[in-house]
Amino acid sequence: MSTNRKRIYLLDEIRGLAIILMVFYHAFYMLGTFFEMDFMLAAQKFFEPLQPPFACLFILISGISCNLSHSNFVRGARLFAIALGFTLFTAVILPKFGIDEAQIIFGILHLLSVSMLLFALLKKPLSKIPTAIGLAVCMVLFFVLYSVPSGSIFGFDLPVELYANSFTATLGFAPQGFYSADYFPLIPFLFMFFVGTFIGRFVLNSELPEGFYKLRCKPLAAVGRKTLIIYIAHWPIIFLLGLIISLF
Questions:
Q1: Most buried residue, 42, 147, 172, 193, by most Cβ within 10 Å?
Q2: What is the DSSP annotation of 136-176?
Q3: What sign results for the dihedral spanned by CA atoms 119, 124, 126, 127?
Q4: Apex 164 CA angle, 162 and 165, nearest 5
């Protein structure tokens, strides 16, 4: 392993762009849904088709970054604790203030934390899989299983018995009536995360094209290095903004 690995600024910039777009999308959603701002609701519906690809980009980069971490188990455990805090706040505390349907039962932070923990546990057997094969298999599984949360594969309905409870919902089998304002189950998104871990091998060995190491937009790269802080902070900030606007 190289001890003088160069900073991959392109990943920072892409991550920064992804979190900015995520913040705007959540602002449209929260201000439109909970504060009944028609313009924001219309904006959220307009940009809704772009939400999955940008979320996948964020997941992909998180997977890539796992190859650069000293301890994915520690990172994953810490992030999981933060994710549980989000669940407690949105599902238990907010309803006491009359804010319903804001609960995040298994959102993107839950997904990333569990994915990091699984990668930490499976790192050794995964390392024995050739990069090209791992990439291909995970990409195929992601697209084949993408419709599982909707109850089908290639248009064929899956057994309703699979969609049993909140636990199965974390896997991608959400029962009728289950709701999470931010929902990213392990199936299919774990496989997009693992796609990132296989791509990350090129990062680890400094085998990326030279353009990845050039700093193009310093502010965007700076944002990309603070994504977790931004993600945690943007929810209460948007909510407070909505409260202030609703007073006028």
A1: 193
A2: HHHHHHHHHSTTGGGTEETTEEPPGGG--SHHHHHHT-PPT
A3: positive
A4: 135
Reduce the DSSP state of residue 183 to 3 states and report it.
Answer: strand
CB 78 within 8 A of CB 69: no
In the chain, domain spans: 9-246
Nearest to 35 by CA among 223, 248, 205: 248
Distance, in Å, from the CA atom of 172 to the CA atom of 184, rounded to the nearest integer, reads 8
Distance of CA 44 to CAs 26, 40, 168, Å? 8, 6, 28
> What does the pLDDT read at residue 1?
40
pLDDT score, position 124:
93
Q: Look-up: residue for tokens 């290095």? A: 225
CA distance 59 to 241: 28
CB 189 within 8 A of CB 147: no
- The low-confidence residues of the chain, meaning pLDDT below 70, are 1-5
Cα separations in angstroms, 170 against 100, 112, 125, 132, 217: 21, 12, 24, 28, 37
Q: Give the residue among 62, 31, 24, 28 at the shortest CA–CA distance from 43.
A: 28
Query: How far from 187 is each of 41, 158, 198, 220, CA to CA, in Å?
Result: 28, 14, 18, 30
Position 8 scores a pLDDT of 84
Q: What are phi and psi of 183, to 5 degrees?
A: -130, 110
